[in-house]
Design goal:
two-stranded antiparallel sheet, flat, 4 strands, mainly alpha
């Protein structure tokens, strides 16, 4: 997803060097990146001081409309300057090794997708004034939760590359390679990354808690936020559980995708924007339905990119999902089709390749061949397009504000990775494809979810 371009805003966003390029200084504890100047010197804020206004100035909404990622980036720069300064007061090594890495990771790279969904849902629902200011803070909090999710995800998946640079745990491991025994080096990097992710999550909750909201709005926002945090953990666990059990169920794959990606990446950010704008239940439900469809398409596209995309484009090594044995919908469809066709050759390739950490490029090419030959790739591409179309139908079922509606529509299609509107899909999908999932209106409004809305289509698709 490409953020809209603006001439004047990017220079204001702090652009500290990434960990792998930071200058180093040696100490008895190892090498530490020199402190990055985020706009406040270490120790300049006393403990407990609040250096950033609780609501940013958005008197001219057009400035944010022109470049939402830059606006969120500016606010993040201010918030993280305060947090890293407070961390330095606690301990310089902690600040250098963890706090500054969390800040750099959050500020560098990324498309600010979730914060854009919050903003454009708010604008499409007529939100402005203090609600718009609050939306920027909620967007910043979501970016910090994303930092937590990605840092932890890289540890769990054993991925050493993120956004074209060393993953945080790999970077810490390299920093201490000269002073730590080889057997402990990797373990230390992973442990440090877990703490870094926890720190990002704590900061995210702090930002949300410090956001000034009317009581009713606060209840709605906190309900959505609370649900989202548990859903993303549940989805990640299902992902891990599917790997260890070698699950090839398309139903379980869609359930995990819905929890860890559709809800967290699209639906819940839209619900947060709607809540901040005070949208009614029907509008909120329509936005959530659109977000559910697009969110599942988003994850299906990510699965395809992992196998067929290049590391230059994705920022991660190609084939990580195959080598880790991740239970993706793409692989589940391929296996189901190979079994139905009695294709022993394809099943043999999948059986010996999935979950092999040392799988060669030749072996990965064999898996790609099976995914194409069985029609799994084509079926997933077609499903992505249909989900995108279904999402647009939900979006068009309610009245939204003009430019906000158009920008939200474009953002949703881009997130789905769908081809331009009007293009014919590759062909009919397999019968195990997930159908358009309905939305629980209570959960969409931020209340407790009864069914968690994960039974439609997918549950009936178990092999």
């Amino acid at each position: 997803m490409r953020p809209s371009k603006a001439k004047d805003h990017h220079a204001a966003v702090p652009q500290p060097p990434g960990p792998s390029h930071a200058s180093r200084q040696t100490s008895a504890a190892g090498t530490h990146p020199r402190p990055v100047d985020f706009g406040a010197s270490p120790g300049s804020l006393p403990e407990g001081a609040v250096g950033v206004p609780l609501l940013p100035d958005v008197s001219d909404l057009r400035v944010v409309d022109d470049d939402v990622p830059a606006a969120v980036g500016r606010l993040l720069g201010e918030l993280l300057a305060e947090r890293t300064a407070q961390a330095a007061v606690l301990d310089q090594v902690f600040a250098h090794d963890l706090a500054e890495r969390v800040a750099r990771f959050t500020l560098d790279g990324g498309k600010r997708t979730r914060s854009q969904f919050v903003w454009w849902a708010l604008r499409a629902c007529g939100g402005e004034g203090r609600a718009a200011a609050a939306a920027l803070r909620v967007g910043a909090a979501l970016e910090l939760i994303q930092t937590c999710a990605l840092v932890h995800d890289d540890v769990m998946d054993g991925s050493r590359l993120r956004r074209g640079r060393p993953a945080l745990h790999a970077d810490v491991e390299t920093q201490y390679a000269a002073v730590a025994p080889t057997a402990q080096d990797a373990r230390f990097g992973e442990a440090a990354a877990i703490l870094a992710g926890d720190l990002a999550l704590a900061w995210a909750d702090d930002v949300l808690a410090d956001t000034e909201l009317a009581p009713d709005t606060a209840r709605r926002v906190r309900g959505v936020w609370s649900a989202m945090r548990m859903e993303m953990v549940a989805g990640q666990y299902l992902d891990l559980q599917g790997q260890i059990t070698s699950s090839r169920s398309s139903a379980r794959a869609v359930r995990a995708a819905c929890l860890k990606s559709a809800l967290y990446s699209v639906e819940r950010p839209l619900a947060l924007g709607a809540a901040l704008a005070g949208a009614d239940a029907a509008t909120t439900a329509a936005l959530c339905s659109a977000g559910r469809c697009v969110g599942i398409a988003f994850q299906l596209r990510d699965d395809l990119n992992d196998v067929f995309g290049s590391a230059t484009r994705t920022g991660k090594a190609s084939g990580d999902d195959i080598r880790s044995g991740k239970p993706t919908y793409l692989v589940a469809v391929a296996q189901a089709r190979a079994e139905a066709a009695g294709d022993r050759g394809a099943l043999s390739v999948l059986r010996r390749s999935l979950g092999r950490a040392d799988l060669s490029e030749t072996g990965l090419a064999e898996v790609r061949g099976v995914l194409v030959a069985t029609g799994a790739r084509e079926a997933v591409e077609a499903r992505i397009e249909r989900l995108a179309v279904q999402g647009m139908r939900h979006l068009d079922s309610v009245t939204l504000r003009g430019d906000g509606r158009l920008r939200l529509r474009a953002l949703l299609r881009s997130a789905a990775g769908a081809p331009p509107a009007g293009r014919t899909p590759y062909g009919p999908s397999d019968t195990a494809a997930p159908s358009d999932p309905p939305v629980d209106r209570t959960a969409a409004a931020g209340g407790p979810s009864g069914s968690l809305l994960l039974t439609a289509g997918a549950e009936g698709a178990t092999r």
